[in-house]
Amino acid sequence: MNQVRVESDTPRTIFRDRHEAGRVLAGLLEHYRDDPDVLVLGLARGGVPVAWEVAAALDAPLDTLIVRKLGAPSNPEFAIGALAMGGRIVLNDDMIRGLHITAEQIRRIARVESEELYRREAAYRGDRGPLELAGRTVILVDDGLATGASMLAAVDAIRADQPKRIIVAVPAAPESTCRELGAGVDEVVCATMPSPFGSVGASFWDFTQVTDEQVRVLLSTRTTGTAVPPIDIAATIAAAAVEAPSGVPPTHVLEELIGDAQIVLIGESSHGTAEFYAARAAITRWLIENKGFTAVAAEADWPDAYRANRYVRGHGPDTTAEEALRGFERFPSWMWRNTVVRDFIAWLHDHNREQRSRDLPRTGFYGLDLYSMHRSMQQVIDYLDRVDPRAALRARDRYGCFDHISGDDGQAYGFAAAFGAGRSCETQAIEQLVELRDDLLAREDSDPADVDDRFDALRNAWTVRDAETYYRAMFGDRVSSWNLRDRHMAETLDALVEHLQPDEPGDRQARIVVWAHNSHVGDARATEMGAEDQLTLGQLVRQKYGAACRSIGFSTYAGSVTAAEEWGGPAKREGVRPALRSSMEELMHDTGMTEFVLRMDIPGDAIEIMRQPRLQRAIGVIYRPGTERQSHYYHARPADQFDALIHLDVTTAITPLEPTGQWIHDTIPETYPSGL
Predict the structure, then answer these.
(1) Residues 21 and 150 grouped into a single domain
(2) Alpha-carbon distance 645 to 636, whole Å?
(3) Maximum pairwise Cα distance, the chain
(4) Are the CB atoms for 547 and 530 separated by under 8 Å?
(5) Domain check: are 493 and 471 in the same one?
(6) Do 15 and 116 belong together in one domain?
(7) Last residue of a domain, one of 425, 458, 476
(8) Most buried among 269, 432, 511, 628, by the most CB within 10 A?
(9) Does 294 reside within a domain?
């Protein structure tokens, strides 16, 4: 059975240029390095720089195969087939019939392209003839495929020379093209399969056209006998890594990494992994006790987190940490209502009580997210009921616009507003925010004791305004809705910095720890998503705070996770599959170390390895093992994404405070006596 290897199913720009794409492909073809029969053929012109990197890495000879696209008479850029050496033609019969192209038209197009084909053959090779293909393992390389017509013509051309095996390797191609080619060759290696597929060039930052002279120079540059022996990349990573028991780096590493940073973003590669939460909590305790951090800002809804904030600061009616977390009712409740967060909130409450007794700054717990549209409305109204009943009536009237949607269902509101099935309440949300902001500004000097309540009310009004926009946008462009959410989180963080800033100018700046998923705390510019102009909280913080911020990511190879099968579904304890081949997680696993930290801010060979694009796993609140490649992997350059990465090779599911029957059932080993 022919093999088709696909390393990713997600779109986005990922390769800097053709040479980097070639080095990535070479890594996927390493098993051919010691095969003396291997010969690499680059399709001219764009495939030759890619093929040169592959040939050099495999210590294999390089040659080129010239294939010319046959363009439609009315649109030469639209391929109806391809022509290869020896007069071999591959035609797309469906396109030819659909465009009513005659046999004579095809002959005329083929004659023109044949002349160009032989011109290039002479220009590239000079007096040298093509290399012998009989009995060889031929790796056919191009810079990408669209319809695959050129590659099919190339395969047809070289098959006549009776090679031992034919392998097709490309950086990017549609899934359908990869599958079609896989039926006719021995192996297909597609580094990425963008979906939807736009163009080959969309997978490159630099897709400058390759010239005839560049092809000639590359073909005359040796690829055999000069290759640097491959380094053991896993051993290189291991040499740079530092043991981090339970995911907590040694104190001296934290001191050097954090320094005087004002913002520290700590991620997680899933929303349901106990070890990520525990290590993040331990690092945060160290930051609070040793670096004077006075806030934890989480990827959580503002009103729910603010209830916990009141508890940890010694206010509000809740008497235990578990009670203080009961505001987290919305799916996925386990993300914050779990045993690790409960224990951290209890510790923070005790820490603040000690701080208060010594008249020292206390540390708060805040939410950055915007899903709480209806709950935030109620918080605004409750505040105004206490301080200005007439303003509360106006707020009720404005927010009454949302009453046609029952419950706290922002998605239902967004769907209705986006598709004309209900009113848009954008104007009312903005009017209420503006009135409240202006009123609170006027109150600042008159009632300083009310400063926290005023800030809470204003952030809730901002949340209503941004959530209204977000829910309408989520039924349109995915990138736009993502960016609205991460901008909201960044703006909320900025507001927290300003709110928590000490009154005295000479006092230390407010310092905040951010808890969020890797996909938010990492820099989007180092990922596939950045090519579509997708932003992240981590990117926005880096751009604003520069060296005053640090970001730490987490990864795991295998284990279990608490997640749902679909949005709104019950929490389940799922097994996490071992990481995919060529992924960052597999590389971390191959080091042989089980718990370590790798700093990305120290130059060296390990960091250069981590600067290469690799698949990276991201599990949110939903985990779909059956479609893991499509659902949970994207390409990223970890060294540019984070300042440090903590790897825990095997991890376990976090325990919800109210585990469902399904979650409990999933924790029982299969060997458990069924009769008990």
Answers:
(1) yes
(2) 13
(3) 94
(4) no
(5) no
(6) yes
(7) 476
(8) 269
(9) yes
> Are the C-beta atoms of 522 and 530 separated by less than 8 Å?
no
CB-based burial label for 316 (10 Å; 0-12, 13-18, 19+): middle
76 and 137 part of one domain: yes
Token readout for 561 is 């996770």
CB atoms within 10 A of CB 108: 12
**Cβ contacts of 458 within 8 Å, gap of 6 or more:** 436, 437, 440
455-488: string of b/e by CB count within 10 Å (b at 16+)? bbbbbbbbbbbbbbbbbbbbeeeeeebbbbbbbb
Report in angstroms the alpha-carbon separations of 571 from 27, 305, 367. 38, 21, 22
Q: Compute the distance between CA of residue 195 and CA of residue 209 in angstroms, rounded to an integer.
A: 24
Confidence of residue 27 (pLDDT cuts 50, 70, 90): confident
What is the CB-side half-sphere exposure of residue 50 using CA atoms within 13 A?
30
Residues 497, 572 share a domain = yes
Question: Is the pLDDT confidence value at 644 over 50?
Answer: yes
**Residue 403 confidence (pLDDT) above 60:** yes
Spell out a b/e string for 243-270, using b for 16 or more CB atoms within 10 Å of the CB, else e.
ebeebbbeeebbeebbeebbbbbbbbbb
User: Would you say residue 123 lies in a domain?
Assistant: yes
Among all chains, which residue has been given the structure tokens 């990481």?
A: 579
Domain that holds residue 432: 370-476
Domain end position, chosen among 151, 186, 220: 220
Query: Distance from CA of residue 306 to its chain's centroid?
Result: 28
Residues of the chain with pLDDT > 90: what percent? Answer: 53
Residue 229 covered by a domain:
no
